[in-house]
Specification:
Layout: H1 2-8, E1 13-18, H2 22-39, E2 43-48, H3 55-68
Parallel strand pairs: 1-2
């Protein structure tokens, strides 16, 4: 994670988790803590089933994240 952040210099980190994948959902919490503690970057976790029904909500959340950067 540190290598990727150092290489690409992102303004924020977004973690996309498939709704039924509990392992990645649990791991996402650790990723968020690591990013905040070690890199002071905003973090957004998006849980989706990749259907069109949540496109508007995801767009709004990503736009709000980018405005805060």
């Amino acid at each position: 994670m540190t290598r990727l952040i150092d290489k690409f210099k992102p303004d924020a980190v977004i973690d996309v988790v498939l709704q039924a994948c509990h392992s990645y959902n649990i791991e996402s919490h650790k990723v968020g803590e690591y990013v905040a503690k070690n890199h002071s970057l905003p973090f957004l976790k998006i849980v989706t089933d990749f259907s069109q029904s949540d496109v508007g909500q995801i767009r709004t959340r990503v736009e709000a994240l980018l405005e805060s950067c």
